[in-house]
C-alpha cells in the first residue's frame, strides 16, 4: 500500500504530464481548477490516468467531488485499501 | 460595391522538403525530392511503402503539453500559422494592431485528425472505454486546425474549414479572399493542413490503386506526366498564408508578396474519384479565376498544375490548361508534387505558395522525374528552374479533388515589395 506522499507524487507526475503544471506545485491543499488552472477535459484525463496508475475505479459521479489534490489522494487511498 | 484588393503579407509552411518556407522553397528550386521509404514495421506488408514525410517533427516546435493536445494535422497547421503570422510582422501571442473582430481564419483539411481518430479507437478496443482520451473529439474534428489557430490569435471574425478533398486548401484561400472582399474581415489566416501517413490511410489509398508502388526508388516515384508514372505519393504538411486587405497592409507598411487576384470553383459532376477526361469543368475553373481577377489568358506566364502523377489525371489537366489559356499558350507549367508528394488538403495552399513565390522571385521550380513525357501534352513543362521575365506577372494554381472539385487560384506580383 503506497503512502499518502507516494500517491501525491505519482499524481503530481500525471498532472504535469497532462496539464504541464510543475509537479512541485501539486500539493494536497491545492484546488485543481482554482489553483492549478486545470481545465475540465484535462481533469477527466487526469482521473482516467489515475485509475490506470493506481488500479482503482473513480466513477464520474465521484470524480466531480474531487476538488483538491488532497481530495483525490484521499479517495485513491480509500479505494486502494 | 467595389471589390477590395487582397494581398499576401505572410507565408508559413512545414513540408517534406523542410520545416519552414525558406527550406521548402530552396528544396523546390534545387529539384530535391522529399519522398522517402516508410521504415516503420507497419508498412512492411503494404503494397505502397513510400510517403512524403515531414522533414521536421512539428512537436519539436511546440510546448510539450500543447503538442499532446493537438492531432498531428493541427500541429503542422499551428507551426505553419505561427511562421506566417510572424513573417507578416506580427508577434505570436502578443498584442498586435489587428482588430480581433476583423481577423478571420480559413484553414482546410481533406480528412482531419486521422491519427487521433484511429489511435483512440485502438485504445478503446484494446484497453477499454475508460482509456479513450476526453480530448478525442476536439482533436479529431476537421475544424480543429482552424479553431486552434483562432484560439492562439484571438481571431473572432469567421473561423472556417472547407472540406473538398485535395482541392480543400485552394478553396480555403478563395473563401478567405471572399471574407475580405465582402467586408467581413481585414486579415485572414488561410491555408491547409494534412497529416495522415498512418497504416490505415496508406493502405486505403493503396487499395484504390491510386498510389505509386515504386517502393524501391522513392525519390523517383512521383513523376507527373511521365509515361512511367504509376500513381500519387501520399504526403503530410501544411502551408499557411496571411491575407490582408491592401489598404490595411499599406497603412501598417507591411511587406507584400503579391496579390491573390481571383479564384474559380467548379465541379465535374462526373465520377466520385475519376476526373472528367474532357477537362471541361477544370478549364472553366481556370477561366473563372481569370475573369474574377480581370486577367486575360495571355497574361498567365506560369501554372502550378494539380498533376499528381496518376495515369488518368495528368494528361487531362494538360488538355484543360490548353483549353483555358489557349492551344498555343506559352505559360511555363510545373508540378511541384514531383518533389513534395501529395499533401491532400494541404496541397492547394502549398502549391499556391510555390506559384506566388515563383512570380515573386521570377523563378519557376522544376518538375522532377519527367524522363519520358507522355506524347501530345502540348504544354511547356519546366524540367529545370526557369526564369520569368521582368514586369507584371500572373500565374494560376490548380487543385482538383475526389468528388469532382476543381479550384483554380490566380496570383499576380502587383504591389510586391521587391518590384
Could you describe the 3D structure shown?
The complex is a heterodimer of chains A (81) and B (419). With 81 residues, chain A is an all-alpha fold. Chain A has helices at 4-19, 40-54, 60-63, 69-80. In chain A, helix 1 crosses helix 2. The radius of gyration of chain A is 11 Å and the shape is globular. The N and C termini of chain A lie close together (7 Å). Chain B is of the alpha/beta class. Chain B contains 13 helices and 15 strands. Chain B has helices at 21-29, 64-68, 72-87, 114-127, 136-140, 144-153, 168-181, 199-207, 246-251, 280-293, 313-325, 337-340, 347-361; strands spanning 6-14, 35-37, 50-52, 103-108, 159-160, 187-194, 237-245, 258-267, 300-304, 332-334, 363-364, 380-381, 386-387, 394-401, 405-412. In chain B, the strands form 3 sheets. In chain B, strands 5-4-6-7-1-8-15-14-9-10-12 form an 11-stranded mixed sheet, with helices on both faces. Chain B has a two-stranded antiparallel ribbon with strand order 2-3. In chain B, helix 10 (280-293) crosses helix 11 (313-325). The two termini of chain B are 30 Å apart. Chains A and B meet through helix 2 of A and helix 2 of B.
Which structural traits does this protein have?
heterodimer, A: 81 residues, mainly alpha, Non-ribosomal Peptide Synthetase Peptidyl Carrier Protein, Chain A, B: 419 residues, alpha/beta, Peroxisomal Thiolase, Chain A, domain 1, 11-stranded mixed beta sheet, two-stranded antiparallel sheet, 13 helices, 19% strand, 3-oxoacyl-[acyl-carrier-protein] synthase activity (chain B)
